[in-house]
Design goal:
Elements (H helix, E strand, L loop, with lengths): L1 E9 L2 H30 L6 H15 L9 H19 L16 E3 L9 E2 L2 E4 L3 E5 L8 E10 L2 E9 L14 E6 L3 E5 L4 E3 L3 H17 L6 H34 L3 E5 L3 H4 L3 H10 L1 H15 L2 E5 L25 E3 L6 E3 H23 L7 H10 L1 H11 L1
Parallel strand pairs: 8-11, 11-12
Antiparallel strand pairs: 1-5, 1-7, 2-6, 3-4, 4-5, 6-7, 8-9, 9-10, 13-14
The structure holds zinc ion (ZN).
The site of zinc ion (ZN) has 8 residues, from loops.
Amino acid sequence: MLKTHKIALDPNNVQSTQFAQHCGYSRVAYNHALADFKDGLANNDWRSHCDLLRRFNSIKRDTYQWCDALSQNASKNVIYNNFKDAITRWRSGQNRFPKFKNRSHGQSYQADSGRGTIPVEGQRIKLPKIGWVRMFQPLRYLGTICKVVISKHGHRWFASILVDTSVDDPIPDNRHKPVVGVDVGIKHMAITSEGVYYDNPKALARYERKLKRLQRRLSKRIKGSRNRYKIKTKIAKLHYRIACIRQDAQQKATTAIVNNASRIGIESLNVAGMVKNHRLAKALSDASLSNFLMLLKSKADRLGIKIVEADTFYPSSKTCSNCGVIDSDLSLSDRTYHCRDCGHTRDRDLNAAMNLKQLAAGHTESINACGDSVRPCPNERHESVNQEDSTGQLLLFSLS
Ligand SMILES: [Zn+2]
């Protein structure tokens, strides 16, 4: 089983310069291969990634004399893997034709030359031509190291280490845990039907003033100047911090939710449609809800927990979680749900989470019945409650 552990590196000044040089070399090789490939297309000559690498190797010592001091894995991997993938995706219609890379686009290079070529010992990693580099934590998985990618985010360098682990983590048995509905929102990042509220860290809002001030200062600096570069670095650092705060909260919340559920009901978000509301756009992007749901899905998948996703138009907020009637007049500003039919009052988000839980729980029964997934209709439930009030209530109580 392949697992990746991304570890922050602690290089010295010489090493971080070498990282940047390798990233530059990788970019130069990619751009050279792309230009060569385009040239081939123009002359009706299809050049494969093997041809491209051979052609690059034949000229590199003359055109790029400085590359002798660097690891040749950087150029080999980028043409053999990244460029080949880009062409494959273009041919299958998945992506557009590859573009030339520039320096500001993001820095990374692949350092290994195949399986088991990069040694890791405790909190350090040995990279070709660079030597031992300190890491901030030891590698989490045991096994053969298949791939090592060095990249830069903000001001910090990272190593993404792909490990082929033979030992699998034991999967905890979550079958006795409850079915959980999860409603996501802006004020609270997530609300579970168990009544747990996960606060939104509002990372961008917290640093908005500082970010604005830096961006204003950046706009007054001369392009290409040292002072402009210094402020750019500060802005990158701040963006990195904002992303870290957001990710930390999301990772903790999703892990807690997944560890305490046997089945999870979520709503599918139409984020593109929601962002059109200009008053909410910034807060929505700050919350990055789709990322939250993506994390939740991947963690649930790893533990074998089924995720039941309501379709986009399922009225999770407007349905009464007690009797199932739909209140179509409910506006975004109504923070509590008050049912006009049964008089039930509950927090708006908790009400939505309860509905999603019922949806997820109902999913089991419909699968058992006919082998197909059928969404329980809220109106039908409403009718059955009216006919046999006591049994209907009992059923719903046992669910909640
Ligand atoms: Zn009701």
